[in-house]
């Protein structure tokens, strides 16, 4: 096996592991909601944990972002994007909540 073939094999193996992990986490999410295996109060925390696991799998395996020095700019770009999305989401919730409060003052 040449070095190039070995590299392609490792890359394919890495993506296959990512795909399997993603499918397993997705199936676990659906099963936690669709079955009565977990108590009702544990379903939401389980979904949050599974979603965070899914995010980590996608960031590490499919986006190739890790904590190495070469990937530092990619990590900062991802964190900045998350910050902007958070500002937009919470700002929207704040504005809509304020509008709701102002419109309901007469009742």
From TrEMBL:
<dbReference type="InterPro" id="IPR014210">
    <property type="entry name" value="Cyt_o_ubiqinol_oxidase_su4"/>
</dbReference>
<dbReference type="GO" id="GO:0015990">
    <property type="term" value="P:electron transport coupled proton transport"/>
</dbReference>
<keyword id="KW-0560">Oxidoreductase</keyword>
<dbReference type="InterPro" id="IPR005171">
    <property type="entry name" value="Cyt_c_oxidase_su4_prok"/>
</dbReference>
<comment type="function">
    <text>Cytochrome bo(3) ubiquinol terminal oxidase is the component of the aerobic respiratory chain of E.coli that predominates when cells are grown at high aeration. Has proton pump activity across the membrane in addition to electron transfer, pumping 2 protons/electron.</text>
</comment>
<dbReference type="GO" id="GO:0015078">
    <property type="term" value="F:proton transmembrane transporter activity"/>
</dbReference>
<dbReference type="Pfam" id="PF03626">
    <property type="entry name" value="COX4_pro"/>
</dbReference>
<dbReference type="GO" id="GO:0005886">
    <property type="term" value="C:plasma membrane"/>
</dbReference>
<dbReference type="GO" id="GO:0009486">
    <property type="term" value="F:cytochrome bo3 ubiquinol oxidase activity"/>
</dbReference>
<keyword id="KW-0813">Transport</keyword>
<keyword id="KW-0812">Transmembrane</keyword>
<dbReference type="GO" id="GO:0019646">
    <property type="term" value="P:aerobic electron transport chain"/>
</dbReference>
<keyword id="KW-0249">Electron transport</keyword>
<protein>
    <recommendedName>
        <fullName>Cytochrome bo(3) ubiquinol oxidase subunit 4</fullName>
    </recommendedName>
</protein>
<keyword id="KW-1003">Cell membrane</keyword>
<keyword id="KW-1133">Transmembrane helix</keyword>
<comment type="similarity">
    <text>Belongs to the cytochrome c oxidase bacterial subunit 4 family.</text>
</comment>
<feature type="transmembrane region" description="Helical">
    <location>
        <begin position="14"/>
        <end position="34"/>
    </location>
</feature>
<keyword id="KW-0472">Membrane</keyword>
<dbReference type="InterPro" id="IPR050968">
    <property type="entry name" value="Cytochrome_c_oxidase_bac_sub4"/>
</dbReference>
<dbReference type="GO" id="GO:0009319">
    <property type="term" value="C:cytochrome o ubiquinol oxidase complex"/>
</dbReference>
<comment type="subunit">
    <text>Heterooctamer of two A chains, two B chains, two C chains and two D chains.</text>
</comment>
<feature type="transmembrane region" description="Helical">
    <location>
        <begin position="75"/>
        <end position="97"/>
    </location>
</feature>
<feature type="transmembrane region" description="Helical">
    <location>
        <begin position="40"/>
        <end position="63"/>
    </location>
</feature>
